Amino acid sequence: MRGVWKVVSLPFKSRSKNIQNPQKFDILEKWEAVLENMKKGGEANFKSAILDMDKIFSEALAQAGFEGETFADRLRPARDAFPRHVYKELWQAHRFRNRAVHDLDFQASSFVAESARRSYEKGLKELRIL
Fold it and tell me: Where does the pLDDT of residue 29 fall: very low under 50, low under 70, confident under 90, or very high at 90 and above?
C-alpha cells in the first residue's frame, strides 16, 4: 500500500525548495513578531507590518535559493515555485509595500495589511516555512 501512495502523491508534491531549520526558525520568529505588532492596530503599525512582511518574505526567497539584490529580483525567477494565483498575490502585496514607501498619501489600513499578510502567508506556505 505504501508504494501506491508514493505513486499517487508524486504529482502533488510542492514545487518549492526547502529551507533549513535554523533559517526557518529565524523567519518564523520574525513573522510572529510582525503579527503581534499588527494586532496593536493603527496606521503606523499596519504600515510597519507591510514593510516588515515584505522584508521577511524577501529573506525567505533568498534562503530558498532565489538570488537577486531586491525582492523583485528574487521573485521573478521564483515564478514556477508558486501557483499562478499565489505568485500574482505576492506581486500585489509587494506593490502595497512600494506604495507605503513611495506614496506620501498611502493609507495603511487594516484591510491592506491583512491582504498583504494573507498573500505573504500563502507564499511562506509554498516555501514550506508555515
Answer: very high
Q: What is the DSSP letter of 49?
A: H
Q: Quote the pTM value.
A: 0.82
Question: Helix (H, G, I), strand (E, B), or coil: what is residue 111?
Answer: helix
**Dihedral, CA of residue 60, residue 92, residue 116 and residue 75, to nearest 10:** 0
* HSE-CB for 125 with a 13 A CA cutoff: 10
Q: Which of 48, 46, 6, 26 is nearest to 124 (CA)?
A: 26
Enumerate the domain spans of the chain. Answer: 21-126
Q: Rounded to whole angstroms, how far apart are CA atoms 127 and 24?
A: 10
Cell of 80: 514556477
Cβ-contact 56, 31 below 8 angstroms: yes
**Cα–Cα dist 17/53, whole Å:** 20
Task: Determine the Cα–Cα distance for residues 26 and 128; give it in Å rounded to an integer.
Answer: 14
Q: What is the CATH number of domain 21-126?
A: 1.20.120
